[in-house]
TrEMBL record:
Protein name as annotated: Type I R/M system specificity subunit
Domain Type I restriction modification DNA specificity residues, every copy: 64-177
Molecular function GO terms recorded: DNA binding
InterPro entries noted in UniProt: Restrct_endonuc_typeI_TRD, Restrct_endonuc_typeI_TRD_sf, Type-I_RS_S_subunit
């Protein structure tokens, strides 16, 4: 995975705990940027949100997020992966997740690969047991995988994106029908 993803980083990669404490303030009331947590993805990107101000966002240069970036839970529910959506504010990563992205591979394909059963098993093998399961960035990078060509990745990624949209549409459909009856 270290060859697949040229970015594997987290919140604490931005500095020491002291420098993070001194430079990054978090807010529960709306502010400049979202601090994306795993619970935001689990809540289907509907909030409640955690925010940081412009100075905090600027300090967190190594963990800025963009649409179609992938985040991974590395503590607790290790191996849960989420695709970052387009939101109405700048975004940065909050603690307890890892940002993984590739400048040379298709993000939609990589996301589907990461949530596949074989990859979940591979991640599980690198997980460290304890009070809370965890995986470190180095062990994640050591997971072996093979990738199709970029052209094939793009076709597969687009197919799954369309399939996900169709599934979401069908999941909403019964709610609309039940309102009519």
């Amino acid at each position: 995975m270290g060859e697949v993803f040229d970015t594997v980083t987290d919140y604490v990669a931005n500095g020491s705990f002291k420098s993070l404490r001194d430079n990054v303030k978090s807010y529960t009331k709306e502010n400049y940027a979202y601090m994306i947590r795993l619970q935001d993805a689990s809540n289907n990107w509907k909030g409640p949100w955690l925010y940081t101000d412009e100075a905090g966002y600027s300090f967190l240069t190594k963990s800025k997020l963009h649409p179609n970036d992938i985040i991974m839970s590395n503590v607790g529910s290790v191996g849960k992966f989420f695709l970052i959506p387009e939101l109405d504010k700048p975004m940065t990563l909050a603690p307890n997740a890892v940002l993984i992205k590739s400048s040379k591979n298709n993000a939609l394909f990589l996301y589907q690969m990461m949530i596949s059963t074989p990859m979940q098993v591979a991640v599980g093998r690198k997980t460290t047991p304890g009070v809370q399961l965890k995986i470190n960035k180095t062990d994640f990078k050591r997971i072996q995988t093979n990738l199709p060509s970029l052209n094939e990745q793009e076709k597969i990624g687009e197919f799954f994106k369309q399939l996900d949209s169709l599934i979401a549409l069908h999941q909403r459909k019964p709610k609309c029908i039940s309102k009519l009856t």
